[in-house]
Amino acid sequence: MNIENPPKTFSEISARYPESGTGTLLGQCIDASRPLLYLSEELAQGSLRTPHEHPRGQLAWAASGVLRVNTEAGSWVVPPSHAVWITGGTRHEILVASRAAIRYLFVDPSVLDRLPDHCQVMAVTPLFRELLLRLLSYDLQQAQTGAQQRLVQVLLDELAALQPSPLYLPSGQDRRLLVVMEQLSRNPADTRTLPELAAVAGASPRTLERLFQSETGLGFQQWRSRLRLLEAVQRLNRGEGSAAVAHSLGYTSPSAFVAAFRRYFGQPPQSFGASELA
Predict the structure, then answer these.
(1) Other CB atoms closer than 10 Å to residue 148's CB: what's the count?
(2) Is residue 88 domain-shared with residue 48, that is, in the same domain?
(3) DSSP state of 164
(4) CATH number of the domain where residue 214 is located
(5) Which terminus in the chain has less CB density within 10 A, N or C?
(6) 247 and 153 in one domain?
(7) Would you state the pLDDT for residue 186?
(8) Where is the HTH araC/xylS-type domain positioned along the sequence (predicted)?
(9) Would you call 44 exposed, middle or buried from its count of C-beta atoms within 10 A (0-12, 13-18, 19+)?
């Protein structure tokens, strides 16, 4: 949405766009009297929120479906058991891997010091989920009651306490590295070796390994393994079974896939299976 002279405070937004609930506007709102603004929307599979940024921090939670959030630093996969925190001022895009019911919080800069200073995926607790759903049940256009204001403060406390999860795949900047990342992302089951991929990228195997380490903090094999595991989370949420996921992603057996999944996430694959939480 392109808007000339966009309103900044919530009262201005309400006056000029009384029917608007767009995240574009809510994310731009600077109003310490409304530390949390919120929005629900249903998005079809394949939907894309094109790259944008806003001063408010943003929490995105898909009660059903899977989100993928991309920034210059990397990408985050967000199943219904988790939410993604996007810091204010971070340029990002949101892709919907499957039909999703998304709940957003937009956090005013006046309270951002209580929250993480970097993007991350966090495990959603039952308490946080119920508090969020209660807040979303209120009419955003109405003045907040004392009870609602107290709910906002508790929700902020619970948001700050959510634990991060390793549903993140770092990206890089070097052209040769990006060539390999794109090749593998298109086909996570790709079994080509480091030397084979280095030849495609126009780099030596040693140089390519060094680039992975220096720009992502992961070795080549670690990065590819994480790519496959994050792809597995998306496929599990589409209803695919562990055996089918293991086969489609190139694991030698379902047991090898389950072992790798447990080793990285500390949980079995079924803990990330298809679900609908609200």
Answers:
(1) 14
(2) yes
(3) E
(4) 1.10.10.60
(5) N
(6) no
(7) 95
(8) 174-275
(9) exposed
Quick check: is 199 in a domain? yes
Does residue 277 have a pLDDT over 80? no
Write the pLDDT tens digit of every residue in 168-203: 999 999 999 999 999 999 999 999 999 999 999 999
- Rounded to the nearest 5 percent, the helix, strand and coil shares of the chain are 45, 20, 35
Q: Which domain holds residue 55?
A: 10-165
- d(CA 176, CA 171) in angstroms, rounded, equals 12
| Domain limit, last residue, from 127, 148, 165 | 165
- Residues 191 and 147 both lie in one domain: no
Query: Which residue shows structure tokens 């940024």?
Result: 53
Say whether pTM exceeds 0.85: yes
pLDDT greater at residue 242 or residue 143: 242
Note whether residue 277 is domain-resident.
Answer: no
Give the CATH number of the domain where residue 79 resides: 2.60.120.280
Distance CA 179, CA 192 (A): 14
Q: Which residues pair with 191 in a beta bridge?
A: none
**CB-based contact 41:85 (threshold 8 Å):** no
Residue 73 neighbours by CB distance under 10 Å: 16
**pLDDT digit string (tens) for 103-147?**
999 999 999 998 999 999 999 999 999 999 999 999 988 888 999
